[in-house]
């Protein structure tokens, strides 16, 4: 939501809504937001949450290969051998001339943490935006996105600061 999307413009002197406004007005439409703390300011995260509600928001990393890497790392956007150089700086990948973002480097835990801090939404709602909502949109919520008998048992365990301590994939513990 918002990234490379049209918003209010003027046509023949009249204001005309864009894709952003349509995203707010179409009740059944899911919106995806990169909630890394860089792509959208807290005010827009609060507006998205207020208008769309927790059932129609999906948190997405939009991460590129520099995900989780520290500031100062130079990596490639696109093809690993001849892609465009970019630098990770201020928690986001930027073009080398710093004229634009090259992509997100956020991990899912950061999205949950950032969205919750910005909106004060209940943790269970924010986790649903990262798990069940995308599963519903993709039509795999019969086996993904929540905890229930017969589902895949893909689970994360984290503390109150949303630092991940355990990962389970299909019921098997994976090293963190």
> Order of strands across the biggest sheet?
5-6-7-8
**Largest sheet, if any?**
4 strands, antiparallel
Q: Which class best fits the helix and strand makeup?
A: alpha+beta
Number of strands: 11
Give the N-terminus to C-terminus distance in angstroms.
31 Å
Percent of residues in helical segments?
25-40%
Tell me, briefly, the overall form: globular
Please trace the helix and strand order, writing H or E for each element: EEHEHEEEEEHHHEEE
Count of discrete alpha- or pi-helical segments spanning 4 or more residues: 5
Strand portion: 15-25%
How would you state the average pLDDT, rounded?
95
The poorly predicted ranges are: none
* Rg measurement, Å: 18 Å
In a few lines, what is going on in this structure?
By secondary structure, the protein is of the alpha+beta class.
Structural write-up:
By secondary structure, the protein is of the alpha+beta class. Helices cover 26% and strands 24% of the residues. A four-stranded antiparallel beta sheet has the order 5-6-7-8, with no helix packed on it. A three-stranded antiparallel beta sheet has the order 9-10-11, with no helix packed on it. Strand 5 and strand 6 form a beta hairpin.
